[in-house]
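Same chain as my last thread, 269 residues:
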Amino acid sequence: MEPRGVMGGIYRLTEWIMRLSVINLLWILCGAPFFVFFFMSFISLVNGQVPEDQMLSFIQTACLTLGVLAPFTFFPSTAAMFSVARKWVTGEGDVPMFKTFFKGYKDNFKQSMLGGIIYTILIIVLVVDYYFFANSGSGQIVSGIFIGLIVLALVSLLNFFSMLVHYHMKTFQLIKNSVLITIGKPLRSITTAILVGFVLFLSFTQFTWLLPFFTGSVIAAVAYWNFNLIYTKLQQQLEDMKKNEEEEVEIAAEMDREDLVKSDYKDTK
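reply #2:
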């Protein structure tokens, strides 16, 4: 029996801490090649181990390597994490974590890899364009636009993962709908960007211990929660439209009944 009151609150808090940390560790473990290279590169930059004249070349090489690793490690692992986050957000908090995670990894591996390749290419192109215009004398405004496009692509990527674990769709259809939702629901997209940005800011600047235990799983839960709000609203709109259509059909059928037409009108026909 679950305890109540203050002890019950502490129990639930520790239970969620355990859930978030376990899934985050599984996410890192299954995406180990990507994360190991990322953090080694990040530490080298932070500690000043890269000579200044080699900085640009080092960043380009690191980004290229991460771009190659991501579709085969990071993206399937993230899809598995979103599978668990979906269960949490939809009210299945007691779902078996290991079973759900690895089932999500297996079921979504191919689509997450293909989607990952496309998104990786897109983001690399946007980043390269940003650096090109940022280093040019008259490209500050254009580089700002590319920053916005990069953020848009990243939010779209989060929606892609949410839709991947929620719908049975083809990969290109998932990508198309992810982009449409991101553009069509700007307030939700901005909310997702702010919340995720805040979690990343805290993780990389204030509380680095969040990175191995909570950062990924919290981002997945926040992103899917925001997507679920969009999905619920769209479902409600569809139900309202269906209800209105049914009412219109009923009204039309009622007006078409001959037995309800007054006899003097019938005589004039």
